[in-house]
Write a structure and sequence with these properties.
401 residues; alpha/beta; Peroxisomal Thiolase, Chain A, domain 1; two-stranded antiparallel ribbon
């Protein structure tokens, strides 16, 4: 039986651009919360007042390798390439296997480039020569393969908020099935827009937080929606165990399971009883004891209620439930990158035996979800994502033995 391990991690998000820094800031509950500028005309027709800006990061170490994608690619592809290079550095890999596979999740179209080119066409009747490759979603994985000069399968998965988790799951299955020994998996989205188009759309669906402080409040009576993020990128290096051991790699965690499903119910909501995700989670967990559950936890009332129902159905009462947190409440909802970031957070929790705190007020009854960061012995962790369209996915990680 082949085994799959995580040997490199990178998250470029609001909590930082290095995975140890990201986890430390999550445990300190630092939130890079910004108010929408008052002179933005789009603000007049929107109720949400806060967002998480796109992260800034230092790319000087990879300047030469990133030059082409920075000049010719979409911002989401550029940040994904930077994250891939950081993850390889973290794994102490100078040159990945030639047949390394790339699986990247994308939650939204390349909105920024598409909107900018639309404005340019209206003003000048011209568009950029690279309009099509800049706006096509497949360019995300393609650019990583180009920058690294690798020739394995290169794919983009777009399954709404479950995209990053599905990408990691695809890499896991490829290695488990013997199709490759190494995979780069993750997600990336770049969502800034002066018209706040996506935020308007999420608010129309009653998904964006209306909290006066701007906070998302997952699994709380006061919850009103998620905290919108302008995006992020995250890449994980997955390897077959013997491949990793042969080069003396540091192993963060072992991936021991992946499950996905579709509700087949609604394009924007979940069955209120959480029945479909309960079946999926029971297949994943089996009879194993789970110490930590990184929830999808969007702080939307319908999603949280269905997820809480699943938690009770699978794990029982508060006393028998794993420690629960929602990374989205601290870094915002990063769409395509969120699942990959949350898998990395699970690996960090295993490494540090720590579970980060959350923004919350009146937490649902009988739920093991708290405001404060906790020291918890974490040998087994699960990260779950549930996206529009009924796309569900979950990954199980265990301490490597």
């Amino acid at each position: 039986m082949r085994r799959v391990v995580i040997t490199g991690m990178s998250e470029i998000c609001a909590a930082g651009s290095e995975h140890n820094e990201v986890f430390r800031n999550l445990c300190e509950k630092k939130i890079d919360l910004h108010e929408i500028e008052k002179n933005n005309p789009a603000r007049e027709k929107i109720c949400s007042r806060f967002y998480i800006p796109y992260p800034e990061f230092d790319d000087s170490k990879y300047k030469d390798k990133l030059r082409q994608v920075k000049r010719r690619g979409a911002k989401s592809a550029y940040t994904a390439c930077a994250s891939a290079l950081m993850a390889l550095d973290d794994a102490s890999i100078k040159v990945p296997d030639d047949d390394t596979r790339v699986y990247m999740g994308v939650g939204a179209p390349n909105m920024y480039e598409l909107m900018e080119q639309t404005f340019k066409l209206e003003e000048t009747q011209k568009v950029d020569l690279l309009l099509i490759p800049m706006t096509m979603q497949s360019s995300l994985a393609a650019w990583i393969s180009i920058v690294l000069g690798i020739h394995g399968r290169s794919s983009v998965l777009s399954m709404a908020c479950a995209s990053g988790t599905e990408a990691v799951g695809s890499g896991y299955e490829s290695i488990l099935n013997g199709q490759c020994d190494m995979a780069l998996c993750g997600g990336s989205d770049y969502l800034p827009d002066k018209n706040l188009l996506l935020l308007h759309g999420f608010e129309a669906l009653k998904c964006a937080t209306l909290s006066e402080e701007g906070y998302a409040l997952p699994f709380c009576e006061e919850s009103s929606g998620f905290l919108f993020s302008e995006g992020a990128a995250s890449v994980l290096v997955l390897e077959e165990l013997e491949h990793a051991r042969a080069r003396g790699a540091k192993i963060y965690a072992e991936i021991t399971g992946f499950e996905s499903s579709c509700d087949g119910y609604s394009i924007v909501s979940m069955p209120e009883d959480g029945s479909i995700i309960t079946k999926m989670m029971k297949r994943l967990v089996g009879d194993k004891k789970v110490d930590y559950y990184n929830a999808h936890g969007t702080a939307t009332k319908l999603n949280d209620a269905a997820e809480a129902a699943m938690i009770h159905n699978v794990f029982g009462s508060k006393e028998t439930q794993p420690a629960i947190s929602s990374t989205k409440c601290l870094i915002g909802h990063t769409l395509g990158a969120s699942g990959a970031i949350e898998v990395a957070v699970c690996a960090e929790s295993i490494q540090h035996n720590k579970v980060h705190g959350n923004t919350c007020k009146t937490v649902y009854d009988d739920l093991n979800f708290t405001a404060e960061t906790r020291d918890v012995k974490v040998d087994t962790a699960v990260s779950a994502s549930f996206g529009f369209g009924g796309h569900n996915a979950a990954i199980m990680l265990e301490r490597y033995k």
